[in-house]
Amino acid sequence: MLAVQSVTELRLAMRNGEQVLLTLLIPIVLLVGLSTLDLVPLPQPRIAAVLPGVLALAVMSSAFTGQAIALGFDRRYGVVRRLAATALPRWLLVAGRLVAVLGVVAIQVVLLCGLAAALGWRPAASGVGWALLLLVLGTAAFGSLGILLGGSVRAEITLAVANLVWFVLLLAGGIIVPLGLLPGPLAAVGAALPSGALAEGLRAALSAGHAPSATQVLVLLLWTAAASLLAVRTVKLR
Predict the structure, then answer these.
(1) 70-124: per-residue pLDDT in tens?
(2) CB-based contacts of 58, cutoff 8 Å, min separation 6
(3) Cα(71)–Cα(80) distance, rounded to whole angstroms?
(4) CA-CA distance, 7 to 61, in Å (whole number)?
(5) Nearest CA-CA partner of 45 in 110, 106, 124
């Protein structure tokens, strides 16, 4: 049942034009643009500095923004309520969405890393495993937040808030601009956000082959736990 529900959710996500734009085209454009054009001051090679942030953006786009908007409008049109009336248990509906998000993230990672390799990126081999772990933790954190937002407020509000958060974190959450290049107070806030923890951890893993810091892992786990607990209490079927 989980496999069937997850595949169905994945197919629906990939058929949605806005979803594909958000999860695939925007990260690809940013990867190519920031690595080939001197728009933001970054260390050389630029592709090695750009890819970790773009991977973090891809996770945020799929697991948070896309997930929240899709769930919000599924609730509005009664899709979730009808599914809840079937033999599928509620936990499986949530699990199916999260597994589908992991599938989308896997597609993004393969495409973005393949494109980066074509642009000259060579990862630190010792950090690949750590990067995969961070991607899973980041997907869990952003996915929980997406379900919390999309399952708690009206679809129109979800659409506005999800896009606003995406834009703010893109510019000031440590994704495109590393935390070290941000002003001190802003960098401190970014380090406590899942975007900053994920992006900085990926930079350390893929560029230097280092393990993520305990703080970065803890930040992602805390956001996952807090959002999950709140979602259990506040998510509505309509």
Answers:
(1) 888 888 878 777 876 777 776 777 778 788 888 889 999 999 999 999 998 988 8
(2) 23, 27, 105, 108, 109, 112
(3) 8
(4) 19
(5) 124
